[in-house]
Amino acid sequence: xxxxxxxxxxxxxxxxxEMRHYEYEIIRSAHAASAALAGxxxxxxxxxxxxxxxxxxxxxxxxxxxxxxxxxxxxxEAVAFIGMSRFQRGEFSDxxxxxxxxxxxxxxxxxxxxxL
Length: 116
Prior knowledge:
By secondary structure, the chain is α/β, with parallel strands linked by helices. The protein is built from 3 helices and 5 strands. It has a 5-stranded mixed sheet. Helix 1 packs across helix 2. The longest helix is centred in the last third of the chain and has 14 residues. The radius of gyration is 18 Å and the shape is flat. The model has no long low-confidence stretch (mean pLDDT 79).
């Protein structure tokens, strides 16, 4: 299963998991990719979910199935489910080293001079 989020333009942000009996294994950690490239990287028959799933499906219609979005299963609930699974297995993140994972690199430039 791949959770896929729209990262704008033709990019997606996705992570790939294998689920068995309410347990998950991370196959590929969260990363950004073009929709076309992401579709080539995923195995045939992978279930796609999330607001970016249609982007991958558009390139590879016969390869994947999409789990319809549901208001009953929100992103916050998905994060809580994965967090609870990790907690029950005794996997904890070190709070001192947690930092945000940015989708794109920042490109900082100096301002252009103003001409009056």
